[in-house]
Design a protein that fits this description.
Chain lengths: 189, 67
């Protein structure tokens, strides 16, 4: 997946088109929108410019998925640009719930005085740790870098979202490998 | 969240926002959360926004602003 482009626009367009193809063959026909401002781009589901969640039919009933990323670009010579993820937010919310059940988040830079894991999972989930009742929202459960492909796989495998094509596993595997290899080589996240 | 102004919506559809339009979008998303621009940016940086998709989007846009 060439997330390296002849220009920032080209790299962002390639990224969007690739992810939309993956989405359309796995869980939703809703497209991601890319907006550019200066040397950065943001990717999210939008309708009429407004951010939206998309509906998924799961084994727990309807759930709502939001996917968003912000990427900065780095010139790498010959006028080409490479995109680097600086933040992501992926949320899954149960129907009629006020808060997301799961939020996978990444913050490249933490605010002053914050020391939690930059890649983490939170959500409106009650946990029992020993005798203590703990909210997942009060923890930053470490995750490592979570790709959009992994969230889509979770939706299909664990939430029983009906895939939109028979090749969904290969599509997610190929896209994941390309992402890990071309877009986010180890050590550059 | 109310409809966006036409010019802003068209800019998003084109895929390119000026700094002013980016701030306008953040302000509108902040308004949908019951916040003003400055408070929303501050809370995005402190990670104390409400836990919904508009707040998630806003926090990603604030990253764009900071770049």
């Amino acid at each position: 997946m060439p997330i390296v482009g002849g220009s920032l626009e080209e790299a962002a367009t390639d990224f969007r088109e690739h992810l939309n193809r993956v989405l359309h063959l796995t869980v939703t026909q809703a497209p991601l929108t890319v907006v550019r401002s200066g040397p950065s781009v943001q990717l999210a589901f939008r309708r009429g410019g407004r951010p939206i969640e998309v509906s998924l039919r799961t084994r727990f009933g309807s759930m709502w998925l939001y996917l968003g990323q912000t990427c900065n670009s780095t010139p790498i010579g010959d006028g080409r640009h490479r995109l680097h993820t600086v933040a992501y937010q992926y949320t899954l919310r149960a129907d009629e719930a006020g808060e997301a059940t799961f939020r996978w988040e990444y913050e490249k830079s933490l605010a002053a005085g914050k020391f939690h894991c930059r890649h983490h999972l939170q959500g409106d989930v009650a946990l029992q740790i020993g005798r203590a009742a703990v909210a997942l929202n009060d923890l930053h459960l470490p995750t490592g870098f979570v790709t959009i492909e992994e969230v889509l796989r979770f939706c299909i495998v664990d939430l029983d979202v009906k895939p939109l094509s028979a090749e969904w596993d290969m599509i997610l595997t190929d896209s994941y490998e390309k992402f890990k290899g071309d877009f986010a080589p180890r050590g550059q996240l | 969240m109310p409809e966006l102004p036409t010019a802003l919506r068209e800019a998003i559809e084109r895929g390119e926002l000026t700094d002013e339009q980016l701030r306008q979008l953040i302000a509108l998303e902040a308004e949908a959360l019951g916040l003003d621009f400055d408070e929303a940016v501050k809370r995005a940086k402190e990670r104390t926004l409400p836990r919904n998709h508009i707040a998630a989007d806003l926090s990603l846009l604030v990253e764009l602003l900071a770049a």
